[in-house]
Amino acid sequence: MVTFVPVGALSFPAAARGAGAAGTIRRNACAGNRRGADRYAIGGGVNPRIWLHEVREAWSTKRGRALVVWVLFGLIVLQGAVLLPALVFVRDEYVMSAVREETSRVHALLQGAGRQAVLDDFRQRPLMLGLMLRDATGRNAGVAGFTEFGLDRLAGPGRHFVFGDGVIDTAFDVEREDGTWRVYLRCHTGPVTADATRRVLGLAAFGLLGVLVGGHLMILLLRRKVVLPLEQQARHDPLTGLPNRTHFDHRLNEVIERCQDSGTAAALLFIDLDRFKDFNDNFGHPQGDALLVEISRRLRHAIPGDCIAGRLGGDEFAVVLSSIQKVSEARYQAEQILDLLSRPYRYNQFHFQLSASIGVAMLPEHGTTPADAQRNADIAMFVSKRAGRARVTMFDGAMSAAVSRRKEVEDRLRVAIERDELTVQYQPKMSVDGNRVEGAEALLRWTLPDGRTISPAEFIPVAEESGLIVPLGRWVLRRVLWQIANWVESGFRPPRVSVNISANQFLDEDFLDSFLRVLDRSGVPAGYLDLEITESALITTPDHAVSVLQTLRQRGITVSLDDFGTGYSSLGYLKRFPVNSIKIDRSFVVDLAENPESALLVKAVIGMTHSLGLLFVAEGVETEEQLRLLRQWNCDQYQGHLTSPSIEAEAFREFCAAHADPERPALARAS
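Predicted structure:
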């Protein structure tokens, strides 16, 4: 099992117990845990109100209500099938026992005393209605209190005959000196039956109380052993133990409703870990899971006991801060959480830091439903990501408009690719030492059906983030190859055309095969094509990049390193990658004449490029002074509005004709 331990002076939880907000928060959380442990105890006994609360909690859920109903139904059926018949049997036995006691007493009297004594004692017995004695011949020896019976109705000794209204006759024989006498006792069981019924009702009430108590205990036991674990699995993330998205949405909705009813405010924090995928790739998914567990532990320590933390999925977490009255309070709490999550981690012998981006939405101002609140907090988190990560961003209405605009652009761009509504223009690359067209860069342009245009600065980032850049790059490649084929067929031999390859497109494992298939199907010679690739695409997987570039060069395709100076710009990488030219980013050319530092850097890069046997291309040239300096430093090629903006294919053909070099064969330019 991997254990993450914060290191140094920032160790945890010691730091959280110290002074400041984090220490206060930690103490609150601990106090809440102690209260939870003692909630069932009152003076060492059991708190019945808590037990009733447990039943109410069980009744508050669908699964809990089903549990209560089935337990009570089962116990009631059990009582009706077993307990009630048993109580009736006990009552009948009690009555018969009283009758047997009466008759046994009389029997004893008859054995040892005279008839008159028996009759006197008999009259004092509360159950006896009468007594009749007969000898063996059926002759009456004495009658007391009831009508004579026929002998055929009476059987052997001790046998009971039950009549209506609780009257019982009991017949048995008595041996005396003067013969055998049969005694018939008539008893009325009403008083003893009433007494027995009272006793049975008491037992039934006690049994019902036992059923209720037993049912309560069974409900609590089943709820803790069965229902609560099932609810825990259904409501909580199995890895971290935090509420999952469904349960978190339910709790968030309760907070929003409470804020609306009471006029208070709260804050929703949407937390996304920065570069968590890189950690997974470097250390493996089991270690990534252990890191998520550590992150959840820190979140629990970082929030007060009345707040809610949940894991929404992957490396996304959310926190609801209750009772936040000011935006400044929400920002302060969010920054405390960000600081806690950014403290160093230790994995085996490695120390590393993992930051997070946090978006904050105020409740209910920025969302009256969980979906609206989470969407707005997610928008603010996305702004944090774009602004450089590891920061807190508060949501405002302008962000929603910007995200809606990006969504609109993405949807429109997807349709534009499918319907072939985009166009490609070409910006000439000129030689610095003359006025020759050395090449062109294919630039994507987008005009909507209503005539409005969307700038590449707006839709290219959207394509990068949405993944549309890959199909968009393939579309541009096919369109450029189609245009080159048309030019060649019409007799125009164009210079090399540069096509931009995005990092996502280049890193696609199918890029090389797909590119070569499109090239072969077009029938265009590879010498007409140049690929512009950024440094970030090459250094992500350098071995793979070298293999791909070597294959491209073997086919006669040149490669330019685009936007040089904005990435790592390592000389070691330049020596390793088989590229043909370097294009410096326009940001270094814009202030070339005004900024001495930019001038020195460009001059040095030109010299370095030539020492490696590569061509140097400057883009964004807009003034004569910039061109003069580049010419002075022996720059090879340039492009920019000074000579020509990007133009349509037919206009580019005319531009090339106007700047043709009569001493240079057209085929040479394409070789």
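Summary: The chain has 23 helices and 23 strands.
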